[in-house]
């Protein structure tokens, strides 16, 4: 992987999730500006997983949507999930699966190609259900596609929303020097809500970012960004740090964007 020397990258992940990516960018010679556009907090439901499982022996599947879903569910249940051996477990992505396995929880289904709801729905195990009960562990809000499709296939689906996303206080001035000097090489956005918060924060001043490449982790985020008027978009191969770094090095080489 070639270096990122001379690039200044805006990383918008939450504070506790930005460190590894920023370190990797800096190790490759790039500079980072940390601008968290989301704050992840524990929700009122985070401690209910044990109770939900104990109160309903008919639950057959737990589907974890993200590493946050894993971490907050476990944190709310003393670091473990009693009776987990009585259900099957699915993870939407590799990082989510790794977070489960690190806690000794076996992952029965993990999409092999893409890491999203569509890929999980393509797994043979989710092709058809006959009244089976499923809990989707996620944050408050989010896409309804997975639950809707599983219900169409005969499943009884409920949510356990163990965390919530809020907008932190954002200092717009952090980006002012880079905008004035035209030194910002790319902005990384890893969720639709981060993109929406970006739009809320900058409002009519978003025009200042039109020429700056935005690296996003899915086509869905790219389509939303296009709807907001952004044209210089790079979609990484996936949500992992290495996927994002590959997209950034492509920019550096001028494969998708030339300064």
Q: Please, what is the average pLDDT? A: 89
Kindly provide the radius of gyration, computed on alpha-carbon positions and rounded to a whole number of angstroms. 20 Å
Task: Write out the strand line-up for the largest beta sheet, numbering strands in chain order.
Answer: 2-1-8-9-10
The rounded distance between the terminal residues' Cα atoms is 20 Å
Overall structural class, as computed from helix and strand content, comes to alpha/beta
Main sheet record: 5 strands, parallel
Oligomer: single chain
Please explain how this structure is put together.
By secondary structure, this protein is an alpha/beta fold. It has two domains: about 10-40 and about 170-250, Rossmann fold (3-Layer(aba) Sandwich); about 40-165, Rossmann fold (3-Layer(aba) Sandwich), CATH 3.40.50.10090. It is about 35% helix and about 20% strand. α6 (about 145-150) links the parallel β6 and β7. α3 packs parallel to α4 (about 95-100). The mean pLDDT is about 90.
């Amino acid at each position: 992987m070639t270096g990122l020397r001379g690039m200044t990258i805006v990383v918008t992940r939450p504070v506790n999730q930005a460190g590894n990516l920023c370190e990797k960018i800096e190790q490759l010679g790039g500079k980072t500006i940390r601008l968290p556009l989301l704050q992840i907090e524990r929700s009122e439901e985070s401690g209910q997983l044990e109770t939900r499982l104990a109160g309903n022996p008919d639950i057959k599947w737990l589907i974890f949507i993200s590493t946050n879903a894993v971490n907050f569910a476990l944190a709310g249940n003393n670091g473990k999930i009693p009776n987990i051996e009585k259900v099957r477990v699915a993870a939407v992505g590799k990082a989510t699966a790794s977070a489960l396995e690190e806690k000794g929880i076996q992952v029965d289904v993990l999409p092999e190609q893409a890491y999203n709801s569509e890929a999980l729905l393509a797994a043979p195990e989710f092709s058809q259900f006959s009244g089976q009960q499923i809990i989707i562990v996620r944050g408050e809000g989010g896409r309804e596609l997975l639950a809707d499709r599983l219900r169409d296939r005969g499943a009884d689906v409920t949510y356990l929303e163990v965390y919530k996303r809020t907008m932190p206080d954002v200092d717009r001035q952090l980006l002012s020097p880079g905008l004035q000097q035209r030194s910002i090489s790319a902005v990384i956005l890893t969720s639709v809500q981060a993109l929406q918060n970006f739009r809320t924060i900058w409002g009519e001043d978003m025009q200042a970012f039109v020429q700056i490449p935005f690296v996003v982790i899915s086509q869905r985020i790219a389509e939303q960004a296009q709807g907001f008027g952004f044209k210089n978009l790079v979609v990484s191969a996936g949500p992992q740090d290495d996927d994002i770094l590959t997209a950034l090095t492509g920019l550096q080489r001028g494969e998708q964007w030339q300064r």
